[in-house]
Every structure is written in structure tokens, then in C-alpha cells.
């Protein structure tokens, strides 16, 4: 009988994973809009923004999956988020949320933007050709499972270079604003 993996549905964590990626603020300094706020935080600390626990399969036509633990917090008034990425090869992705609250921000290369509420039990289908970024708008870690084709690949550079057209900031609660400096003034 083949071995299977297990997910603890109360915590969202995998029993076994092949690797863990940890992203700290210094790893995301180019992604956050308010560069001054980033540098002010990095003077005293380098907080963990998120961790990804991967289970990757190497066979053709396979599906891989990962659990992401996105911490609560803000840089300036912008909520913590994952880097965000397009898939190198056109592919959909499924998200299943176990804990926390957030928003999934998606955008295609033409700028069409869609958002989805992320909460315990929500299941989101990320359409092919849409970049996606998870944003933690809550006060506890946002923990979710992502399932995607193993050969989909990840294009982080496009997002690093151009960013998303919109940001999710705290203006008396989560607010979607155009990615423009004047909107970030307090």
C-alpha cells in the first residue's frame, strides 16, 4: 500500500512536506509599495512574512501542492502578502483556506483585476493566465492549501518588475486602491 500524506484540518498543516520556503521582509522589500516603511522596520527587525511547505511531484501530468502560512501584519498601511506570481505555463490553481482571513488578489496581463475573500472553508479557483497574491487582512495567520499542475512553473519576476495594479491597504479596514503613491498618504 502506498504512503499518503495527511493534513491536520484544525491547523491546516501537512504531516510531511519536501521543503519549506521562508520569506522575510528583506526578501520582499522590492514588492511592498512604501519603501521608507520597509527600511524603517528593517532597522530593528526582519519579520517572517510567510512560509510555504511544499509537496512537489516530478512526473508528467502530476499535481503538486503546498500549504502557505501568511503572518498578520502591515508595512505602513499595506497588509502582509505573498510575492504573487503568474504561472510560466497556462494553468489554473485551487486554494482551500483552513484558518484566518484575507483577500486573494488576481490580475491578468491586460490589467483585469478580481478579488476573492479568503476565510475558513473557502475554496477559490484561480483562473489560468491570472497572477495571484494572497493578502492577510486578519489578526491571525492565514493558512491555506494550494493545488497546481507540477509543470506550471512560477514567474515572480513579472510581478517584481510591474507589481499589481491595485494594493490592499488598511483604511478603516481592508480597502482596494489603485497602485499610486498619492493613495497611500494618510
Describe the structure.
By secondary structure, the chain is mainly beta. It has one domain: Jelly Rolls. The chain has 2 helices and 13 strands; from the N terminus they run E-H-E-E-E-E-E-E-E-E-E-E-H-E-E. The strands form 4 sheets. A 6-stranded antiparallel sheet has the order 1-2-3-11-6-9, with no helix packed on it. The protein has a 3-stranded antiparallel sheet with strand order 8-7-10, with no helix packed on it. A two-stranded antiparallel sheet has the order 4-5. The radius of gyration is 16 Å and the shape is globular.
Summarize the structure.
The chain is mostly beta strands and 186 residues long. It has helices at residues 35-44, 157-162, and strands at 19-24, 48-55, 63-70, 74-75, 78-79, 93-99, 101-108, 113-119, 123-126, 130-136, 142-149, 166-170, 174-178. The strands form four sheets. The protein has a six-stranded antiparallel sheet with strand order 1-2-3-11-6-9, with no helix packed on it.
SSE blueprint and pairings:
Blueprint: E1 19-24, H1 35-44, E2 48-55, E3 63-70, E4 74-75, E5 78-79, E6 93-99, E7 101-108, E8 113-119, E9 123-126, E10 130-136, E11 142-149, H2 157-162, E12 166-170, E13 174-178
Antiparallel strand pairs: 1-2, 2-3, 3-11, 4-5, 6-9, 6-11, 7-8, 7-10, 12-13
Amino acid at each position: 500500500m502506498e504512503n499518503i500524506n495527511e493534513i491536520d484540518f484544525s491547523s491546516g498543516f501537512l504531516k510531511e512536506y519536501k521543503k519549506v520556503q521562508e520569506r522575510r521582509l528583506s526578501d520582499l522589500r522590492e514588492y511592498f509599495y512604501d519603501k521608507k516603511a520597509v527600511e524603517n522596520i528593517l532597522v530593528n527587525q526582519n519579520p517572517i512574512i510567510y512560509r510555504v511547505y511544499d509537496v512537489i511531484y516530478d512526473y508528467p501530468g502530476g499535481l503538486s501542492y503546498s500549504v502557505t502560512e501568511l503572518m498578520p501584519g502591515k508595512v505602513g498601511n499595506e497588509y502582509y502578502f505573498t510575492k504573487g506570481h503568474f504561472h510560466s505555463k497556462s494553468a489554473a490553481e485551487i486554494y482551500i483556506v483552513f484558518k484566518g482571513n484575507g483577500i486573494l488578489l488576481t490580475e491578468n496581463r491586460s490589467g483585469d483585476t478580481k478579488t476573492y475573500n479568503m476565510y475558513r472553508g473557502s475554496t477559490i479557483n484561480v483562473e489560468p493566465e491570472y497572477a495571484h497574491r494572497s493578502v492577510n487582512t486578519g489578526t491571525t495567520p492565514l493558512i491555506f492549501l494550494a493545488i497546481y499542475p507540477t509543470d506550471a512553473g512560477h514567474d515572480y519576476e513579472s510581478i517584481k518588475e510591474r507589481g499589481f495594479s491595485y494594493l490592499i491597504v488598511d483604511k478603516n479596514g481592508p480597502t482596494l486602491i489603485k497602485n499610486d503613491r498619492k493613495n497611500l498618504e494618510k
